[in-house]
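ok trying again, last paste got cut off:
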Amino acid sequence: MFGLELSFIWAGIIAFAVLVYVILDGFDLGVGLLFPLTDDEKERNVMMNSVAPIWDGNETWLVLGGGGLFAVFPLAYAVVMPALYVPITLMLLGLVFRGVAFEYRWRTTRWKGVWDMAFFGGSFVAAMCQGIALGALVQGIEIEGRAYAGGWWDWLTPFSILTGVAVTTGYALLGATWLNMKLEGRIQTHMRSLAWPFALATVGFMAAVSLWTPFLDAVYFERWFSWPTALYSSFVPFLVALCIAGLFYGLKRGRDVMPFMSALGMFVLGFIGIGISFYPHMVPPGLTIADAAAPDSSLAFALVGTVVLVPIILAYTAYAYWVFRGKIDPDEGYH
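nice, full thing came through this time. structure:
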């Protein structure tokens, strides 16, 4: 019983780390996705300055989630990695190109355009591959004898492409609403105007993915449409509708914070919706949280360090956002 509880505690920790990564690095990637839609170099400089103090710290949560999966759910890691090897590798390469471009574009004039495109390209590849990997996981991974039994390209399906486009569009929305919150004047107005089409597209893609998901697996359908589970799960679309209303109201009224927080709320609720569909599986449809967990002694040992580490990460993350709160000065540069 104790081991079972530890495995579910660890599942919650990893889910929390992944969620924090998505909502923090999501707007960060979204800023890169908006680069081709900017008016001039000054606008791109200010956009980069808005995430310069916090962009690399956001990816700490990706390391925590991936490292935690390897340490405490080794069977899930051993199944997921070969199944999603291509999108995960491309995602990591995209993050590398993006990080290099972030540093190098400030140190050159002649090649600045090249690094701008690298920043956009890395952001696009990372966002798209994250969405594709999510879609491939939701649609299920074939397991036989505690090992991946599918093909090399099983991850590439119409559903996974849809989720890839949906996540990419959603990240662009997060980026636009973040910049609307952090900037002012002409650039803020431009970012707010860009947020409108991405908001409409995100709502459309979110609806399409939500309607398609229950038909991927009978268990998903039962969770969302069978009584009495439908009574509890119905709160998620209701709250999503409230966030959508807050998003469009905030954009229409020219609010700074409301559109960003509403967009974040949509991502959080979407993540909760996936959790409702998955539970109690770690890798659907055949690998549960308890089955995928490491031995009890390993779970307990790793938990000791994590209980110390996670509050420290939360503290310095909160401190960084507090120090760099408020609007961005367009005359300040990244060094």
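cool. The two ends are 53 Å apart (CA to CA). The chain has 15 helices and two strands.
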